[in-house]
Amino acid sequence: MSRPIPSALLACALAAGLSLPVRAADTNPARQLADWSARAGQTGDAGRGRAFFGSRHGGEWSCSSCHGTPPTRSGQHARTGKAIDPLAPAFNPRAFTDTARVDKWFRRNCNDVLARECSAAEKADLLAYLIGLQ
Question: Does domain 27-132 have CATH number 1.10.760.10?
Answer without folding.
Answer: yes
